Amino acid sequence: MKSKLFHIFFLLSGVLYAQTDSLTVEKEKLIIAKDTVVVAYDPLAPSRAAFYSAVLPGLGQAYNKRYWKIPIVYAGIGTGVYFYLQNTDDYNRFRDAYKRRLAGFTDDEFQGISDDRLIDAQRTASRNRDVSLIVSIVFYLLNIIDANVDAHLRQYNVSEDLSIQPSILRDPNPINTQGNYGLSFKFNLK
What is the pLDDT of residue 72? Predict the structure, then answer.
């Protein structure tokens, strides 16, 4: 038994001795010519832009330097909120008038409108209020998704050197001399 423990200890000490010291890591040197432009890739930029947009709508678009999108975000969210508040007020007016009629009062602002029509108006206002809330939430989520995707796309190399040139090929078939038609694309990196 002692012999087996000794062999295990001996093997483990050899494995531990073979490991490199994590504190003595050699640093690589990067030499860049004067005319070379290096674009750094920031893997956290998309998540940072999405977080900024989640905290304050439009802030992710400002982080991505897409300032023209900020009014669109606020117009979408603001329109949804405006109609939500408007439909809530309409719903409360219809409901209060219907409740007053049930209590026996006849002096509400909807003289000449039946009780069934007031109930339908309440349902319509409630449905429109829910749709307005959904529109606001969708614009808020699209704001976050747009900031994330735009930050991802900003890091791709899209320069003038990239080009796609279509060309149409017509090669005759050597067996029956009929034309073979095809389409090819050349992808040139200059």
Answer: 95
Residue 119's contacts (CB-CB under 8 Å, 6 or more residues apart) are 98
Burial 113-152 (b: 16+ CB within 10 A, else e): beeeebeebbeebbebbeebbebbeebbebbbebbbebbe
Break the chain into its structural domains and give their ranges.
40-158
The pTM assigned to this predicted structure is: 0.61
What residue spans of the chain are helical by DSSP H?
2-18, 45-55, 59-63, 70-102, 115-154
CA 63 to chain centre: 14
- Residue 9's identity, in one-letter code, is F
Q: How far apart are CA 20 and CA 18, in angstroms?
A: 7
Alpha-carbon torsion 155, 160, 161, 166, what sign? positive
For residue 106, the model assigns a pLDDT of 80
Does 38 have pLDDT greater than 60? no
Q: How confident is the model at residue 109 (pLDDT cuts 50, 70, 90)?
A: confident
Tokens of 152: 């991802």
